[in-house]
Amino acid sequence: MVSTFVYSAECYGAAIKDATKQLNFIGPQVRKFREAKGWTQDNLAVKVQLYGWDSSRISITRLENQERRVPDVELFVFASVLGVSADDLFPPNLRKKIKTLWPQYRVKLSRGQVPPKQ
């Protein structure tokens, strides 16, 4: 007897979508600065590539929609290309919200690390 499995987006897609929610803080700020300069996502991708960082419009879209993480070096590339400081890429009042956001962004801790007190 041959069994066939059918995977439904309703069953698996929703859980995956929820797990990838807000993977960075800087996406909306990058969008704000990009739009203020009148640049498209393609324009920003080209400028980032000319700066020396491999990027694409799809990568910019995923970053702005907070669907991917941002390596620390890439953070500085975006700041330089957009002409802002790295701190400007983070939302205002983020420091006050860190403890409430901790469970959402918590990563697996290595041995010996202690999570911040909530």
Which key phrases capture this entry?
53% helix; 6 helices; 118 residues; disordered N terminus; 434 Repressor (Amino-terminal Domain); mainly alpha
Structure in words:
The protein is mostly helical and 118 residues long. The protein has a domain at 22-92: Orthogonal Bundle (434 Repressor (Amino-terminal Domain)), CATH 1.10.260. Helices cover 53% and strands 0% of the residues. It contains six helices and no strands. It has helices spanning 9-19, 27-36, 41-51, 57-64, 72-82, 94-105. The radius of gyration is 18 Å and the shape is elongated. The relative contact order is 0.13.
The helix content, as a percent range, equals 40-55%
| Fourth-tier CATH superfamily name of the domain at 22-92 | lambda repressor-like DNA-binding domains
**Rg over alpha carbons:** 18 Å
How many distinct helices?
Answer: 6
Name of the CATH architecture of the domain at 22-92: Orthogonal Bundle
Share of residues in strands: under 5%
Question: Which CATH class of the domain at 22-92 applies here?
Answer: Mainly Alpha
Order of helices and strands: HHHHHH
Which structural category fits the helices and strands? mainly alpha
Shape: elongated
Find the CATH topology of the domain at 22-92: 434 Repressor (Amino-terminal Domain)
| Mean of pLDDT | 80
Q: Tell me about the largest β-sheet.
A: none
Number of strands: 0
List unreliable stretches of 5+ residues. Answer: 3-20
Kindly report how far apart the N and C termini lie. 54 Å
